[in-house]
Amino acid sequence: MNIAKRSVMIAGHRTSVSLEAPFWDALREIAETRQKSVQALIGEIDAERAEQNLSSAIRVFVLETVRQSP
Q1: CA angle at residue 38 from 9 to 44, to 5 degrees?
Q2: For the chain, what are the domain ranges?
Q3: Helix, strand or coil for residue 70?
Q4: Residues contacting residue 2 through CB under 8 Å, at least 6 positions apart
Q5: For the segment 1-15, what is each residue's pLDDT rounded down to a tens digit?
Q6: Helix residue spans in 1-70 (DSSP H)
Q7: What pLDDT, on the 0 to 100 scale, is given for residue 2?
Q8: What predicted TM-score, i.e. pTM, was given to this entire model?
């Protein structure tokens, strides 16, 4: 499975995030549903992640969101 690295701006600084394509797709869909940009959604995930790696935090967020869907 291909991993795509993307640059995002979080809290005023640029960082890169590496995720598999299905996670980027799911994150984009979640952001659209919530009427937010992917970058804004990543910012929210970043603010709540504590010591967890950002890419891992995004994967867990996507998994938890999918599990909560009816």
Answers
A1: 70
A2: 3-68
A3: coil
A4: 20, 21
A5: 788 899 999 888 899
A6: 21-33, 38-48, 54-68
A7: 86
A8: 0.91
**CATH superfamily of domain region 3-68:** protein bp1543 (1.10.3990.20)
Burial of 11 (0-12, 13-18, 19+ CB in 10 A): exposed
Residue showing tokens 């995004």: 58
Q: Which residue has the higher pLDDT, 52 or 19?
A: 19
Predicted local confidence at residue 62, as pLDDT: 97
pLDDT tens sequence across 13-34: 899 999 999 999 999 999 999 9
Neighbouring CB atoms inside 10 A of 16's CB total 10
**Lookup: tokens for 6:** 């993307």
The closest of 60, 69, 62 to 24, measured between CA atoms, is: 62
